[in-house]
Every structure is written in C-alpha cells, then in structure tokens.
## 1
Amino acid sequence: MTVKLSDIAKQCGVSTATVSLVLSGSSRISRATKRRVLRVIKQSGYYPNIAARMLSTNNTKALCVVVPHISHIFSNPFFGEVLSGIYDYASKNDYKILLEAATYEFCFYKKYLQLFKERTIDGMLYVGSTLDDAYLIDFEKDNMPFIQVGSYIPELNLSYVIGDNLTGGYLATRHLIELGHRRIAFITGNFKVVSAQDRFMGYKKALREAGIPVDKSIILKADFDEKTGYQAMCKLLERCGDVTIRRFGKEASRGVIARPTAVFAGNDLMALGAIRAVEEKKLKVPDDIAVVGMDNIRMSAAGDSMLTTVEYNIYQMGKVACEELIKQIEDSADGQIKEILPVKLVVRETCGANRRRLSKGGYVVKVIKNPSINPPVPNN
Amino acid sequence: MTVKLSDIAKQCGVSTATVSLVLSGSSRISRATKRRVLRVIKQSGYYPNIAARMLSTNNTKALCVVVPHISHIFSNPFFGEVLSGIYDYASKNDYKILLEAATYEFCFYKKYLQLFKERTIDGMLYVGSTLDDAYLIDFEKDNMPFIQVGSYIPELNLSYVIGDNLTGGYLATRHLIELGHRRIAFITGNFKVVSAQDRFMGYKKALREAGIPVDKSIILKADFDEKTGYQAMCKLLERCGDVTIRRFGKEASRGVIARPTAVFAGNDLMALGAIRAVEEKKLKVPDDIAVVGMDNIRMSAAGDSMLTTVEYNIYQMGKVACEELIKQIEDSADGQIKEILPVKLVVRETCGANRRRLSKGGYVVKVIKNPSINPPVPNN
DNA sequence: AAAATGCAGTTAATCGATTAACTATAAAGC
DNA sequence: GCTTTATAGTTAATCGATTAACTGCATTTT
C-alpha cells in the first residue's frame, strides 16, 4: 500500500541497506548512488516508518513533559512559559514532545516508568515536583534521562534546572527594605514545593540582615494562584483591622495587629491576587501597601498593575532543561545536573520605587535594576 | 536484557501468541492460563515494546495537537484551556498527546502530513486555524483523522468543533443594547481567524435588529491579545478627544467623534486591555464605558475587573474535539463533523448591569443570565 | 608480485510484538 | 457412531526498518 524502503531499493536496483545508508547520510555510498536513491525517494513520496525505525534503533526521538495535575494546568502562565521553552528547543532538535500530567493514576501505576520501559520516550522533563512526589526516587536507580524543572526534591539525588529562588526572595525583600519598609508581610506558595521554602529563606535572610525580626502573624499561606493570594491578603487585612465587616468570637478577640507597609508574594499570581484584595479594601498600591511578586509572568507587565517582581526567565529555564536532557540522552552521559539560573529584580510600579520620592524613613530610594548575583551552591 | 513477550511465553510454557492474546484479553484463553500468564508478567516486570506493537498493529495510540506558532503560545489562556480539555479526554482513553506548533517549517515542509505518513500519530487536532492555513487542503484528499478546534476555514471541507461565535457576538451586543447603549464600539481580533469575522457578524446583527447603524469609526482592529486590545482602545479614545496629549497633523485634523458608551471586545484578553486603557484615561468602567468580552477565560473572573463576557467552555470544546477525533480513528468512520457549541452570557461587573440602576434611556435593566440559544446552522 | 588498504556496496540477522490460519481435544447433536 | 461445534490453544508469517559482518574489486604499499 504505502511505499516502503524495500520498494525504493527495488526501483533503484540496490539493496535495502543501501537505501537506509543513504537516508542516514553514510559515507559508504557513492555520490551517484545517493543522488539516484534520493530522487526516487522524493518522487515516490516515501516516508520511513517510525515504528520500524524505533524497533530497530531502540530510540524514539521523543521526550515526555510531565506537569502537575492541577485542573486546567495549561492555562497557568508559569507552566505555559516553561512548555514554550521546552518545545522550541526540542523541535529544533527533532525531538517530539509528549505531554503528561502527574495524575493520581500516573503516579500510582508508575506510568512514568512505563513510558521508559515500553520505550515510548527517550527522556523525561518533570515540571514542578513537590515533596509529595517521593516516588521519583525510582529514577535514582535505573539510568533514565530525567530532569526536574522549576523545582526539586532535596532528599533525592536527581537532576534539576531551577531559578535561584533563595536569591530571588532575598532581592525582593531587600528591595522593600531599601525602600524604607520595616514591616513586610510574606505570602507563600505551598511549602510542598521546595522553591516556596527557598523563597521564604531568602525573605528571612534579608530581614535578618536588616535586623528585622520575623513576625509569623504576617506570614500567610496560599497556593501559587490568584485566588488563594487574594484570600491570604484578605485574611491579613482582616487581622490588621482594615476590614469593616469583622467576625465575632475567636477571630475578633485576637486583637488587631499593625498593618504591614509592604508584601512580598511568593509568585506573581499571588501578588496579583493580593493587589486585588488591597484595592478592594480601598487601600492604595503602593502608597498604603507596596507589593513585590516573583516569576515575571507576561501578565505582570500587561495588566493594570505593572508589578514589581523577580525575573528568572521561565522560558529559558525550560529551554536549558531540554537542552541538558537531550545532551544526557545522546551522550548517554549520566552526569547529574543541578543548574540554578540567575534572577534579577524588575522594578515597576507596585513597589513604589519608581516614584522617586522620599520613603517614610526619609532617605532616598535606591533602585536596584540589576543587582550582582552570587550563584548559590546547590543544596546537595 | 529487558524482559520480552517471548520470555514470558517460555517461562509459562506457552506460545507467544497465547501471551499476546492474554494481554489483549481474548476469550480464546482459559481462565487458568490467563491467571498464570498474568502472574508471571507481573513478577517479571514485563512491559510490551510499543514500537513493536505499533509496527504490527499499524496504529500508534497517539494524537497530535497543533497550536499556532505565536511566541509563548502556551502561556495564552485560551490555548491552555483547549489543551487541558484535550489532554484529559485523551489520557482517559489511553491516547498519548504529541505537541506541535504550526511553525513556518511545519507548514512548508508539510510536517503535518509527515506525522501521518511516518505513522507517528493516528489523528490530529488543529487549534486556531486561520485563512493563512490554506495548505490544510491536503487533509481533504487522503483520509486522515483531522479536526479543527476553535476555528475553521470556510473554503475547506474539513471537520471542526467551535464555539457559536455569531450568537456570542450577538448576545454580547444585544446585552449592551438592552442596557440602553446605542453607541457600541467593537474591537476585533485578526479577521484571518474566521471566528473573529463571525463575532463581528453577531455584533452587526444585534445592531441591525435594534436599528442602530454600523459606524466604522468605532470598529477597531486588534490581535486577540491584551496589548493590542489596549492599543486599539487608546486609539479610539484618542479619536474621541479623551486624550489630552493629542497628535498634530493628519490624526488631529480628522476631528473628534462622539465617544461610545460601551465596547464589545472580540475576546477577553482584548477586553482586559481595553479596560486598562479606559482606566488609564481616568474614565470609569462601566460608568463611562461599559465593556463586554468573550471566551470567559479564568482570568476574567479572578482579576480586578470581573469581566462580563460570553462563555462557551473552551475546555469542553477541546474535550469534544478530542472525543470526536478518537471516534473517527476507532470507527474509521470518516464522517465529517461540524460542531458548534452553545454560548451563554455571563454577566459580571464591567457591563454595569448588576448595578440594577436605571440606564440613561430611563428604563429598567433586564439581566439576561442564560438566554435561550437557537443553535445556528453551520456555514457550509 | 604479494599483501594491505579503501571503496562501494550486499547479505541476512535482528528488533518484539500481532494475528490469520491451523490443530488437537472434548463435548454436543442427531 | 459419526459429524458438528466449541474450546484452547499453536505455528509461522508479518509489520519495515537498521546494521554487523561480509564481499568483490581497485588501488596503493612494500
């Protein structure tokens, strides 16, 4: 039915080996023969059967990208960026991208291993691993090309490419401190994502340096999205007595705490949610409360808010991870990689720095556009 | 090295055929044998080699999703939603998802055909086709399972699953008319995407019904994203003399037109951009200018804006398309599908309806939460 | 002149399943 | 008692490439 390699061979009066060698560009075939075979191939509309090739060569030229199983995950701008970076690099190198979500089934039935064992893929990129993903220990044993992207699991000795979360958290917080803020709240993403912990550590480091004690009452838990960021901020404002409709009983009797003058949110989505909460309470960003986010998703610059944030080129992170994975596959060098990409502060409107006025403390604002970064040492 | 089917057969003292039949759940094998074989399979950690199976069965259990080659495409919430819908249905039905972007190369070198010819995929979902994608005519000839998602090309007789764009445009515009607006601007996405044209037709239909003439000076071109939506709205406000910084020469001498009291934007992203422009000019949404969008992306409800929009469940659209594609693959029924999904108006804040005040015209606002929809007939 | 090397291929085994066609045995039908 | 039917398998061809090992011939080396 469809043209196959042996048809080409017959038509050219050569063996199938010759045709195959022509296709792989072997030097064992003369120019004349190459030309002849190539012409016949073109004329006949021949395409190699990938399954046959896979069976024979035992590689698939396919990578799998695994993303967390959050509903509507692909609408999340963070994952979108990562995926774009991965895709562009992979397709440039003739790799196909297979998409998977880390559903319950995917994990429980070890489908992540199945993909390797069945020989469906050559390597795997795992985006956004959390402490719940301890089953990834399976990748420590056998030698399957595997890289985590954007997060990692400290206990496991597996490759990863991540942003410099600690420095990011540090820069964001230090920036606020340098703007004169002393009471800075922190809205964190789920601590099961280790990056969130690292950002928190950066926050604490900056406070420590400035001699500001960490106040637990202004550290709020959220879950990396707009909604929970909003909720966290509402809760905070409630605690500060900024909300007119107050609950009675336990909550109300806790008493009112001093309102922070700034908030560092563990990612941009949560920052955007926080801003919405602030504005809903008729407070002003950045005048009443300055806000800094992290990730620099495209939305941050486009929306109403002109968010000050920490950039670490999520697209690039995806690209680098893909590059490393392909290197691992093709060199079959199973060297671990633990790559931490640099971050930088992007100063826009929500922190108040660009107003170039004197801060409360009375000293002139220093705008750190591109602070020097000391690349931190991997954890293990 | 790795366990293969013949190893299992040997260990069980049966033929490879038997093992294969057990695996495919054939009734030709006795219960006892099945149990025995299954146990050995489990113990040995056997996984079938997918390439061998593909070669033998001539199907791949893989679908390809093609998305437009807009940079950072996966960060676009529309495509994210579609992809989520597709992914969830596909993986539930044991299909793998291959991701491709319609790059220049992909189109020019007919890689979309190659994927079929090489037997890499069983079917293809093409998201967001435009009039530029005329090469898709290739899919009219051969019988390759192929469905367009979210858009279509009128000249080509190819399957598609889309939202009811015409009715959507109609409902949005009628809603604004019912709120008392008579001067309603339209910001459209690129007309190369036929859905944009359909939305425009809906807009015109509603105006016609209300006896309002179409005014070209308040119809603006944008490109489905926040930025161009913002730019279009700025341009409009400039024309209306709302902008203090005015250009001299040609633009300025055109004279000032009356400002619309409402805007219908061809999608939510553009609506969000428009709102930003309006607010930047110190005008109020919805008091000075009401805004209605279309698509109901998740952001619309989460952001500052509480956008009134037309919903057509993009996630569902992806799901339905995937369902139909798999049907086409497995029944090898090459029946064309042209499915148009219903839309409904989602009334939130930006149209002003929920304020329940009297509109300018002096009559009471009717809120249409769920208007009856007459499913329109496909175009061809 | 014999041996070594290079060139341009060919032969045939191999990758690991699936499945149409066949067989052997037992049970049922008439 | 012979034929038919059902059950539970087996045999062996097949899917379509790739590639290690080999061949035959020409040229170069010694």
## 2
Amino acid sequence: MKMHNNDVAELFDRLADLLEIEGANPFRVRAYRNAARLIRSLPRDVADMVAAGEDLTRLPGIGEDLAGKIKTIVETGTLPLLEEEARKVPPELAELLEIEGLGPKRVKVLHEVLGVRSLEDLERAVNAGKVRELPGFGEKTERAILEGIQRLRAQYGRMLLATAEPVAEALREHLAATSGVERVEIAGSYRRRKETVGDLDILAIAAPDSPVMDRFTTFEAVARVQSKGTTRSTVHLRSGLQVDLRVVAPQSYGAALQYFTGSKAHNIAVRRLAVKRGLKINEYGIFRGSRRIGGAEEEAVYASVDLPWIPPELREDRGEIEAAMAGRLPDLITQDHIRGDLHVHSKHTDGRYSIEEMARAARDLGYEYIAVTDHSRRVAMAHGLDEKRLRQELEEIDRLNERLEGIRILKGCEVDILEDGRLDLPDSVLAELDLTVCSVHYRFNLPREKQTARILRAMDNPYFTILGHPTGRLINERDPYDVDLDRIIRHAAERGAILELNAQPSRLDLTDTACQQAKELGVKIAISTDAHTVHDLRFMRYGIDQARRGWLEAGDVVNTLPLNDLLDLMAKTRHARAA
DNA sequence: GCCGTTTTCGGCCCGACTGTTTTCAGTCG
C-alpha cells in the first residue's frame, strides 16, 4: 500500500506521543511533531520524492535521521522505532494525552503506578478513588479528569469557522461594551482565518478596574468557567467551544496580538530571529535586556526583526518569513477584487431561487456577472438537467440578459464527471455554454489511480472549464476522495484548466496548501460559492479567507476579471484544449 | 532530532494558571 503524506505524518505523531510519555528529550519530540506538520503541508507525496531520489534533508527540520525514517516508512509501511516504542509504552496511552489537564508526566504515572492503559481504565481508577492517592494528584484533579473524559467522548473535532463566527462576534461585542475596555480582538486561528477553530483566543485592553473578566465569565453562552485570573480566564461555551480571554496593557497590545495570533510555528520562527539580534519577544513586548523597546503595535514586532507586517492568514511558517525577508510577500486578494460568482444553482435543479432572483442578488452584491451552473442529468437527486431542459434554461438566460440591467448572466452547467471520465452531456450542447463546472458526485470510493484518471480524462474534454470542488471533502464529515491532487494540478497547468476553490464553509475545497501549489504552477483559481440560495452568495468571504491562506493574489483568481476579459479567457481555454 | 558568520556541541520561545505543594511541577497555549 502506498503511504501518503498523512499516513507518514500520523506515524511520526504517534511516535512523538509515545516518546513524550516515556520522558524523552522534549526537543527530540518536537522534531518529530515538526516533521509531521511539515509533511502534511507538502504539496507532493514524500513517497514520490523518495522514489525520485530527491534529497529530503533539504526540507526544513528534516535531517539525515528523519530523511532515513521517511524513506523506511514509505518503502516498508512501518517504522521499527515506533514498533519498539509501542512495546515499551502501550500505544493506547496516547489517547489519554487528549484529556485536558493530562500531559505526558501524569499519563506516565497513571500507567506505571495504576496500570492504566485506556480511557476506560482511567475512568475506573478515578471511580475507585485511586487517582487522588497518587503524588501530585488530588480530588480536584480527579474531577477534572472525569470531566475531561466526558468532553473528549462528546467532542467531534474542531468547529467550522463559519459555525464559530456568530458566537465569537457576539462575545466580542459583549466585551467591547464593557466599561474600561478600550480594544477587543479575537486572535488565534480565528484571526488567521483557518477553516476550523479549536478554541477562541480573545485579547482586550482594559483599565485595571474594568469588570471585563466578570463580564466574560458570566456571558450568557458560557457553560463552565475553567479558570479565572486577573489577566487570563478560560471558559467553555454551551456549543463546546473553549474561549480564552487575556487582558493586556496598552503598551503590550501589539506584542500580545502577534503572540496570540500564532501560529505557534510562525512565532517560534520570529522569536528565533529576535534571539539572533539579541532581542527577546514575548507577549508583553520587545526587549533588549530588561529594556522595553516596543510592543504597543503589532508592526513593531516584525520591524524589530527587520520584517514588514505579515498578514495573519500567512502566519503558518510555510515560507512567509523568507518571503517577507526578500520583500516578496503576496499582495493578497480581497473581497473587493471579486466581480462575479461562477458556480450557483437555481430552482431548475436543487437551488431554491429563480435565475432572476439569483442574478438580482448578485447585482446587489456589486457583481458584474454570475454563472448559472445547474446540475446535469446524472445527478438525479437534484433533478439534473438533460440536454433539452438545459437548452430551455439557456433560452431563459437570453431573455433575462435582454431585460436585466447591471448584471450579466453567464451560461453554465455543473456537469457531472462520469465514472470513466466522460462528461455527462454531449459536446454539442456544452458548446453553447460560456463555461462548465465539472465535478465528481458519485463513486467517491474508486481506487486512487482510477479516480485520478477519471478527472484527468475529463480535463481533456474541449469544453471542460473549471474543476468543481476538486477533492469532494466535507470538513469533519467526509474525507476527500483518494486522488492524486498533485497530478491533477499539473495536468490543469498543461491543459489551461481552472480549479475551483469552493467557498462553502464545510467544503473549502481546495485547501490552503493546494491553492499555494496551484499558484506556483500557474494554475488559475475560480473562487465560487456553489450557492443554492441567494443568501449562500455571501459564502464568498470564506473562500476569500481560504484563498488568502493559500497566498492567492487577485491575478491568480479568474473571477476578479472584468466580464470581457473573463469571456476571452474562457474561450482561449477551450481553443487550447481543442488544438 | 535539528542546526550553525557568534557554535559541529549545546542550545532549542516563554509566561500564566492550577493544584498540589511548603517552594513548585505539570500543563497549556
């Protein structure tokens, strides 16, 4: 079985867990975790890189040893060191690290003294009153462990950004309306606009006598107060979301904002630069010795290490520091660049509104154009269009375009990519369209080779324009289908095909790193909402967030083009393939 | 385990909060 990047990263993470419980050198543990993180972010499979004889030690954080272990993993599917460690430490113990308040030291004690191996064992030990007798444990710890077990069992993983947003904004306003509060900002992965958030990190400037902490812990959505101090408190909301509030002094606000925005890897990289310059950066400011030299504004943190301010969406230590040093940070796309939406449905298939209603809603957003892309016949569940019904829709669009001012409706179709890679409608009718969004909706479980070949073949069709939701994933619900995305992106580059960044909050398909790779290979992206209602058109901003995380600039995205330029590009794309 | 115009050895980001201590270890972010 071929080992993909996630599989390799998984093994390193497991090894890091076991080493940590064993009490190994924490920097060694970190080296494995860093490697796992790096491998997950790579655009290509390390297995392919190994097969091609590439030098893996050129990757940051990968030395001779890890390069050798990667090679072993992709060639044998396993890692002797991991198996050896698994004999010393029961691998199930790693699960206990997920419990809030339990780290490697305590897990080790639980295992060695009480023989705990699993969540169930731990639960029994707590109920038998044995845990409180251990050194360093007490009754409160016992209760915290029980609660932690329950939360872990109820937990589904990280929350969609779009799900967290309403409560996050309500909380922000609640805090901002508190007396003595000068500024409030949500930092963390929320500010970096990651597709999911694990918790919220809120930062505030407040006068010393401000009741902001009380206002925070008594917010109506709070289910449980985990800790409460003068500068930091943690609560859990009813939705399950954990929220931290930190109160900082005005002269530290910028440093704190930078620090709590993260990512952790980005901060470590920035601080390393600071150390080289004899500076210390922490959440209170920038210091030379004990003397503060800045920290009120975030820009000063970057300026202190000779960098321009870096947009939060880029702060993942995926090259943004190097780009900033070289003065080559991207000029990231914004919502204002967007001139239209190239993937929307109407009530002719599974949408809820008429074409006219969708077009007017798009015009209200300030768009120049909207492409109606109803489903093709194969998607029977959505009452997909056959040739005849599609032609009727095209006639309706002609009539609307004559009548409607200020918006142009483009003729499109979300054409199903059949199992063998053919498109679901004959070329004769596809030729009448301005563009196609071609997508996979069935047979997600094809073997990788077949799934990849299916999509590559579809791209060769002269009427293929945009690959819709390229991996089919639904965040927290459905994994991407097994497909060689690297090959697909390369093929798109060769064929002049466009890839969609589907802006549905639960799809956000392509991922940030895939966007980055597409950009590097010169593949254009369409950021589209896949709207089924007029309200869904507003999902565009989540697509923009993701695009920014993927380093995209306006010039990388086709729906920033004025109408005529867009139509020219679509026509050229077809000629390129037909030739 | 990685890494290097201050180093091939000795560093590796750093502070708050909790619960258990009697001055601090463990955990978290």
